[in-house]
């Protein structure tokens, strides 16, 4: 166990829970990348933090809990839970997420979150859309495209 890297993961999620994006940003390497089932491949700390700022700005009730933090010299992992109201539908989402990290120069250089997209879409969008379409590649592509357009618009406005 690398205590310094484990502390970095806890610091990141503590800042996330406080909605402190400046402290979150200090955890990321300038060359950081992020990926998850929606934002598949964001490159650079500015884009990664643009996503977090957009998501926290649009979801005022985000709650974050983290557990199962482990870290070695170059990689780490955590399980975290996000609780929020999905803005488009007003539906409550409780998303269970497994995060993987790579570290460089004492900072997070790679952050990858994995969660069940079909389960998320059912919570966020409800029936029938999330339940019946959440697993289809076309639906996933639509959600990803909308999310990336929203990020581009958010970053252009800021």
UniProtKB/TrEMBL annotation:
It comes from the Bacteria. Residues 9-111 form the SnoaL-like domain. This is Ketosteroid isomerase-like protein. It comes from Streptosporangium brasiliense. The lineage of its organism: Bacteria, Bacillati, Actinomycetota, Actinomycetes, Streptosporangiales.
